[in-house]
């Protein structure tokens, strides 16, 4: 059996695997897609110590770094079940069962899509999901934020300081964000809020040039010319398969303590699949390191 089995091969999983392997314990990583979300990322400018890199390049160097150590990488395999017996068992969709003394869950998250024409087509060509990452690309431009919850309004406030103008498009008749955020938003001169509006299409040629929405009260269609659309309707943790095992919060994020421990002894978690406050590469790597050190502490005590 493994001493530490990491499930998920994004920044959190890679970091956890390296920290575990450096303790000289038997370490494995099973990942559906080694690299994770960064494989879908173009420019990265906030990975501290590296002024600029690109997602696929960072993913390749994560893999190269993990392979410096004696880590079994099991790629293109999806975990579907975890169960604690004498050892912890992780069953893969292939039917194989991996056994380990400790497990680190680092299955990440995915952005919730609006699923309108143009969204997939213009991803990274004006359609963005992360204001901390891609906001500066829209300096002096007109953008829209889809979603009037806390993340949408935070994004709009953030973008208003960079972009020329920000339009918030909310499906419901009212914004759902906290009132302090709404007050801050409405104090800004370059923000327009459109409520009760259904996004119909993100338009463009080689990149985004506008957005079309339907006024749900009148059925009338409107088109706004702009260069960027931030989709902010939620991040979904990849934790559905853990139903009934480790404790998760209301939105499905795994609840961890300061050592990365979950409610199931010997099972740790790190990165975007957990209830961490923010989801970024550097943060998920830090929590991956924490979870590995937490798992090592657990091993020497049990
Ligand atoms: P992920 O990267 O999501 O990795 C999860 C891993 O788990 C993957 O290997 C996946 O295949 C695997 N997995 C999932 N389910 C299973 C399963 N059941 N069995 C086995 N394996 C499974 N952050 C920044 O700091 N700077 C940026 O510029 C930036 N830009 C971004 C741009 C885009 C378009 C996106 C989508 C995200 C961006 N982020 C950025 C956020 C950053 O990518 C994430 O915070 C980070 O990748 C989280 O790492 P993670 O390891 O927790 O999860």
From TrEMBL:
Keyword flag Transmembrane: no
Keywords: Disulfide bond, FAD, Flavoprotein, NAD, Oxidoreductase, Redox-active center
Single annotated GO MF: oxidoreductase activity
Domain FAD/NAD(P)-binding per the UniProt entry, residue ranges: 2-286
EC id: 1.8.1.-
Cofactor: FAD
UniProt family annotation: Belongs to the class-II pyridine nucleotide-disulfide oxidoreductase family.
Subunit description: Homodimer.
Protein name, per record: Alkyl hydroperoxide reductase subunit F
Species this chain originates from: Neobacillus paridis
Lineage: Bacteria, Bacillati, Bacillota, Bacilli, Bacillales
Residues of the full protein shown: 208 to 509 of 509
């Amino acid at each position: 059996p493994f001493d530490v089995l990491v499930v998920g091969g994004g920044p959190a999983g890679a970091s956890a695997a390296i920290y575990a392997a450096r303790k000289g314990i038997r370490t494995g990583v099973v990942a559906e897609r080694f690299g994770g979300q960064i494989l879908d990322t173009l420019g990265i400018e906030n990975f501290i110590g590296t002024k600029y890199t690109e997602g696929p390049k960072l993913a390749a160097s994560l893999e190269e770094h993990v392979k410096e150590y004696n880590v079994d990488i099991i790629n293109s395999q999806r975990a579907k079940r975890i169960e604690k017996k004498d050892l912890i068992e992780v069953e893969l969709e292939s039917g194989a069962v991996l056994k380990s003394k400790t497990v680190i869950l680092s299955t990440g998250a995915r952005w919730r899509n609006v699923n309108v024409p143009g969204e997939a087509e213009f991803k990274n060509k004006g359609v963005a999901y992360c204001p901390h990452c891609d906001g500066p690309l829209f300096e002096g431009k007109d953008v829209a934020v889809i979603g009037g919850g806390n993340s949408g309004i935070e994004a709009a406030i953030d973008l208003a300081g960079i972009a020329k103008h920000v339009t918030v498009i909310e499906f419901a008749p009212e914004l759902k964000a906290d009132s302090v955020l709404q007050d801050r938003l409405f104090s800004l001169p370059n923000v327009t809020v459109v409520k009760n509006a259904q996004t119909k299409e993100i338009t463009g040629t080689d990149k985004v040039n506008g957005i079309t929405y339907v006024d749900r009260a009148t059925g009338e269609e409107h088109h706004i010319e702009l260069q960027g659309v931030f989709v902010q309707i939620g991040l979904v943790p990849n934790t559905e398969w853990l139903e009934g095992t480790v404790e998760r919060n209301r939105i499905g994020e795994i609840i961890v303590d300061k050592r990365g421990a979950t409610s199931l002894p010997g099972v740790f978690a790190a990165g975007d699949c957990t209830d961490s406050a923010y989801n970024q590469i550097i943060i998920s790597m830090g929590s991956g390191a924490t979870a590995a050190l937490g798992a090592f502490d657990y091993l020497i005590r049990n």
